[in-house]
Amino acid sequence: MTSTFHSIETARRSLFTQTAALNTTGHNIANANTEGYTRQRVNMKAASPIEAYGLTNSTVPGQLGTGVEFTSIERIREMFLDDQYRGESAASGNWTIQSDTLDKLEAIVNEPSDTGIRTVLDNFWKSWSDLSKNPEDPTARKIVVQTTQSLTDAINYMSTQLNNLDRDLTSNIDVKGKEIQTYLSSIVDLNQSIAKIEGMGDQANDLRDQRDLLTDKLSKIANITVVDTDAGYNISLGGRNLVQGAALGATVDSAFLNAAYDSGDLKAGEAYGMIFSNRTYVADYKKQLDTLANTIANGEVQVTIPAGSTVPAGTTVLKDSEIINVDGTKTTLLAGTAIPIPLTGDLKTTVKGLNGLHQLGFGMDGSSGRAFFTPAVAGEAITAGNIRLNPEIAADPSLFATSLRATTDAAGKVSVIKGNNTLALMFSNLKDNNTFTTASGSTTGTVGSYLSSMVGQLGIQSQEAARQASNSDFLVEQVNSRRQSVSGVSLDEEMSNMLVFQHAYSAAARFMTTFDEMLDKLINSTGTVGR
């Protein structure tokens, strides 16, 4: 049997429930622009009616309802969309880093442009062509020295920029490792707090939002796997546990990330993009630039020394060569054989780059055998970072060779024919007419074509990375849009809900007032007739 004050309790429950719904709506509206916030909903159900079925139940027909109550305040979120978002976020992080690295490489190479290596290289060849018109001109010789130094400076500077990019990526990998470790520590703390709150029967919605936001940020750095358990999130990278409930797993730093990359556990994310870019793109272009510098100085190249030329005494051929005599016959010179002086015909032979070619001729003072390019430290292999013009030539431009004609008197004194321009012409012809072979034996084509292939490769890689980054960003936005349609706060929807809950609250209050007036009539007016 119902209590006299039953409806007061019914109205009270309605007021409390609608108040909770209004408070939750206000919380949603307040956090409409909060990063990572998930809209919340009050779950309502009808309270247990009077009376329950039993032997002592009353004979009053029907069951009288006791109002409404709310059972929980829950987040509206789909784990499936979270997993999709985190997977696409990792891919986006990887391609964004790769695209950014290749953009920086394009800025370093700076081709095509009026200030890149190609322009400097063209000026170098042109200075030799101009010198061949008057080999004795001191101004033309100084111009050759200046253009050569401009070429080596440009190559040195590009090498320095590549090394700086290498260091930046390496240091950023360490920064990302520390960032991951910070996120993991925060997630462990949140796991503990959430477990305590929910262990008392409440739902830690806002703490769960914080944890999911940190997990989303973590997913952009590495391809993590997330499993929601009673103890909280378990997070792993491949086969490596990072978080297990309230406990941290492996300590993440640059060494950990590099090891995960080597083992294949790290497959995506910004950290993967940094390691991949450094080991693949930066390392490759450093190697190609070193090859370019070393090939210019010492790469094998075929040249034709014209008949009548004089080379320093004792000069031998590097490989089997042929002398095409005036009468059309050919004389073979085996590798290591001394070159006849003077040449009776055109000699087709192989020399070691511009250094080898330069060592065939004579300077203005009759000296010979001097290398044109040298490393910064004697004895080292020539690379992009250490190539330079021979300091002796830089100090005295008359020392570099342009002549392939000299005479030797009875005392062995060499007198150079200074006006001979044979060697200067051979230098200028190397721009387009010869194929270089690197120290590893691969053919590079001309120096210009090798540079063009390097620039072309970079352009294609940059274009592909930019395309992949754009596609990945689109997929992230698409998944996030779907996730926001489920979890995001819609102000229009919340305003509609607020009106519904407000009217329900007002109606419950009116019901309580009405019943209060009925009780007043019952208590204060019943039995007073006739007084």
Write a concise synopsis of the structure shown.
The protein has helices at 6-30, 79-109, 117-133, 138-199, 205-221, 254-263, 270-298, 353-358, 391-395, 422-429, 447-487, 491-525, and strands at residues 40-46, 68-75, 225-229, 232-237, 240-244, 247-248, 300-305, 321-325, 330-333, 345-352, 373-375, 387-389, 406-408, 414-416, 436-437, 443-445.
Protein architecture, described:
Helices cover 54% and strands 14% of the residues. With 531 residues, the protein is of the alpha+beta class. The strands form five sheets. Strands 9-8-10-7-15-16 form a six-stranded antiparallel β-sheet. It has a four-stranded antiparallel β-sheet with strand order 3-4-5-6, covered by helices on one side. The longest helix is centred in the first third of the chain and has 62 residues.
